[in-house]
Structure to design on (237 residues):
């Protein structure tokens, strides 16, 4: 869950920012927790389980102002993403010196806010270590989702082909396993192969070239879907 704090003495503006943030994450299907209040209350929560992934601070407000608040938050959370919201661009240099993540002028915050949230969302996804777990009667394996190149079926088994050259087998159908993988990352090349779009280098005619050099066949039936999904994935990335 994404955890966000908003500190701004302009209640109406803070409510509008919160509304936009909630709408953004709702559209992504991602849970979000938003705390909104004053700087002093935020500092009372500092260093606890209430630390946040993203902070929005107004600059000009009663003590502590946004710059002092950013400095204090940075002291206990060096990796904090701090975004300054202000009507004045003269504070930009101070913000840069404090290492803030971004600086938004309130006059056109709607133009800046959504691209910023998209950037944070992508960084958050990239930082997650998603994994797939294989359990057999005698052993268990944890495979990083991003290490999986493609999957093939072999009778009653599904075979995982990974970037490091290793393969893993799970006694389950390719269809069942595909349902447990991220739907926005994997696509069926044909009835017997599912590929990780992250590792596709090209699609030419009915051939998919993968990052490890392997060439996988795409069925005529699936080609249009693969091309559409792959084009959308590359554009988003």
């Amino acid at each position: 869950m994404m955890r966000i704090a908003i500190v701004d003495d302009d209640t109406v503006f803070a409510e509008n920012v919160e509304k936009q943030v909630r709408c953004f994450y709702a559209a992504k299907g991602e849970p979000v927790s938003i705390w909104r209040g004053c700087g002093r209350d935020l500092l009372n929560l500092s260093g606890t389980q209430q630390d946040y992934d993203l902070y929005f601070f107004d600059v000009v407000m009663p003590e502590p102002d946004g710059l002092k608040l950013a400095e204090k938050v940075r002291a206990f959370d060096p990796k904090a993403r701090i975004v300054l919201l202000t009507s004045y661009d003269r504070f930009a240099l101070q913000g840069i010196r404090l290492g803030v993540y971004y600086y938004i002028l309130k006059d056109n915050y709607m133009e800046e806010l959504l691209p910023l949230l998209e950037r944070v969302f992508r960084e958050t996804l990239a930082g997650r270590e998603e994994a797939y777990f294989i359990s057999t009667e005698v052993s268990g394996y944890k495979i990083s989702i991003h290490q999986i190149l493609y999957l093939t079926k072999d009778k009653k088994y599904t075979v995982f082909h990974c970037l490091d050259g290793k393969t893993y087998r799970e006694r389950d159908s390719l269809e069942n396993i595909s349902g447990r993988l991220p739907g926005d990352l994997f696509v069926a090349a044909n009835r017997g192969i599912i590929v990780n779009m992250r590792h596709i280098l090209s699609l030419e005619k009915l051939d998919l070239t993968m990052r490890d050099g392997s060439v996988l066949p795409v069925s005529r039936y699936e080609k249009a879907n693969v091309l559409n999904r792959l084009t959308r994935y590359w554009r988003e990335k």
